[in-house]
Amino acid sequence: MRRFRCGGQPELGDNLRSSSMAVRSTAILAPHGGAIEAGTSELCLAIAGYSHKEGPAAAMPSAVPGLVQRDYWMFEALVNNEALHITSTLCDDPAALAVCTNNLYAVSLHGFSPKKGPKNQILIGGRDRRLMENLAWAFDKHGLKPLSDNDDLSVTVTLAAADSELNGDDVRNFVNRTRTGAGAQLEISTELRRSMFGTFDGAENRRATAGTGFWNGFTNAVREAIDVHELGLAKPAPSTSV
Fold this sequence. Notes:
Radius of gyration: 17 Å
Helix content: 10-25%
Mean pLDDT: 90
Low-confidence stretches: none
Number of helices: 6
Largest sheet: 7 strands, mixed
């Protein structure tokens, strides 16, 4: 099943003021939520500013006080079935496309199993290079970075190269079908997602036990990267690629 929120488009204009206000217009997406890429549904809601503890039966997740509420779209599967894993370039759900085209920017959350390297990895792709680099900067700031002396607390964050299979830069990728024609895609390794939940198996267990390990660092980093991006700023990021 799908869950989404799609608000009104922000009014844009140039008033020639000496300072700029943030344009709150970023969608959060999780196309393979539920049992497919476990943990991405809960992360989607949390980053969008809503309670991750409320399941699909809720009419609308509760807004979290103190956080910016953003548009979101996610597909939640009850079982991990390959037939339900629709690639981002083939996503044609009208609600998903409406959420993307309604916003200037978008961040999509995915799960992957790295073929090599450490267990905790984030691969950043997409067509919005500034947003990708802002995300890499924010992950580093919030402690998601390589550590030589502790594999459990080490996170490798990589900007996807142009020839990477998961670079997410296809114009048909729905995260790139925003008002600016670009977005950012986060591939999160299974073990990194697992660390964010007390019990990783089962949707109810994940909703009840979310918040461990890298949860706060990850969600806070993505929110801060979006805030910085919506101000039109560009932060320096490591130049690694795969």
